[in-house]
Design brief:
This protein is of the alpha+beta class. It is built from nine helices and six strands. The two termini are 59 Å apart.
Length: 416
């Protein structure tokens, strides 16, 4: 008894290897996170941070150092004799340190920062759109893998039926009820189904590898792809990221309009200059001396030849372009949704027909199975009916997968 208890304890202690499974929603999230394009959003944010810091530096004091030594062919002299003023030297020297401080410029720096932020949002939204467009590619790969996965199960079910019938046929041959070599046809059908499984497995491996490259992770060959039950977002509004992009483009234009309106605002600077040279500020003192000046500078462009007005008109045209692009996008999306809905309706009608056909095929196969057991028909005739039923079931399976794919694509087109 103790040995039995110890055996079960060891089994429980062994690490369990659960089969990896994944959903289509997880694929969307992984692609958005790991696809190389997603790095651009972080790069854009870093670039915007640098641009903002550059703009903010314009508010800081600006320092400059100047030094010069000159020799002049002539200098200023006082044309009055005996006044006791020494003439200036023809060689003159000067070194200065200047500080300029922006006091007021109509808040251009703040407006420029807002323009950079609007540009960042627009560029990041474009990255999001490019990533969103991967969804239909993911849909195609995911549902293709799902089709191979389900097809393998269908072939396995067919093999179970073939093996059962093969056992029955061999028994009939031994009893003399069924013609000899009838089992060979069933065995050949089993071998052919094994080839189909091998082909499906190779196709699935290729699809999984392609999908893995989009998701940025290594999916195992035996990964279980869960079947989604997709419901159409019929009563929801269009929610595509492109619509957000159009709005962000308009906001970027508006921020540029604000910046333009501040370009002709008066600009006030404070300055201070200190220096040492010969001569200094006193031109009558022919010696090295220290000096300084402080003051204010006001700059105001009173007339710009309607440049600002024309820039605003150009931006207004850009805004009209954006509005037009939004209208075209909505129209094209509506057409795509209509086509996709018609595709869904068509596949649903195919599925209804498939179910009727399979019902009839099963009745025929049931009769053929009984006839084969009684030696009325050959195994070749039976496998023909079995293959017909399998092909119809495979068609139904393919239509069901295509229906889910069409619904998933419909939701992607609509933005849900």
């Amino acid at each position: 008894m103790k040995r039995i208890f110890l055996f079960f304890f060891v089994l429980l202690a062994l690490p369990s290897t659960a089969q990896q499974s994944i959903t289509i929603e997880a694929c969307y999230n992984l692609a958005a996170k790991n696809y190389p394009l997603s790095k651009q959003s972080h790069l854009l944010a870093s670039q915007n941070k640098l641009d903002t810091e550059i703009i903010s530096k314009t508010k800081l004091p600006q320092f400059s150092v100047n030094a010069q030594a000159t020799y002049q062919s002539d200098v200023v002299e006082i044309p009055i004799p005996n006044v006791g003023v020494t003439p200036l030297n023809k060689d003159q020297y000067r070194a200065t340190l200047s500080v300029n401080q922006l006091i007021y410029n109509g808040k251009i720096a703040e407006a420029s920062t807002l323009v950079k932020l609007a540009q960042l949002k627009t560029k990041q939204k474009q990255v999001e759109i490019n990533l969103y467009q991967l969804k239909q590619q993911i849909n195609q790969l995911y549902f293709s893998i799902l089709l191979t996965q389900e097809s393998k199960l269908l072939i396995a079910a067919k093999q179970v039926q073939l093996r059962a019938k093969l056992k029955e046929v061999k028994s009939g041959i031994s009893q003399g009820i069924i013609l000899p070599s009838s089992d060979k046809i069933l065995e050949a059908e089993l071998l052919q189904s094994n080839q189909q499984l091998t082909s499906l497995e190779a196709t699935k491996m290729t699809l999984i590898k392609t999908l893995s490259s989009l998701l940025g992770i290594a999916l195992e060959p035996d990964t279980l792809f869960q079947k989604p039950q997709v419901s159409l977002a019929l009563h929801k509004e269009l929610n595509r990221p492109e619509l957000d992009l159009f709005q962000l483009k308009k906001e970027e234009i508006e921020s540029n309009e604000t910046l333009i309106s501040k370009q002709n605002a008066p600009k006030l600077f404070g300055f201070a200059t200190g220096g040492y040279g010969n001569p200094g500020l006193n031109m009558l003192d022919n010696s090295f001396q220290a000096f300084y000046t402080v003051g204010l500078t006001l700059k105001w462009n009173l007339f710009d030849w309607d440049t600002t007005k024309k820039q605003r008109e150009s931006l207004a045209i850009n805004k009209d372009f954006v509005e037009n692009e939004a209208e075209i996008f909505k129209l094209n999306t509506s057409v795509e949704l209509y086509k996709q809905q018609k595709e869904i309706d068509k596949i649903e009608s195919f599925i209804a027909s498939d179910l009727e056909i399979i019902k009839l095929r099963k009745a025929v196969l049931k009769t053929a199975s009984s006839q084969l057991s009684n030696g009325v028909i050959t195994s070749s005739a039976y496998t023909t009916e079995l293959t017909n039923l399998y092909e119809n079931e495979n068609t139904l399976l393919r239509h069901k997968i295509l229906l889910q794919l069409a619904k998933a694509n419909y939701n992607v087109i609509k933005g849900h």
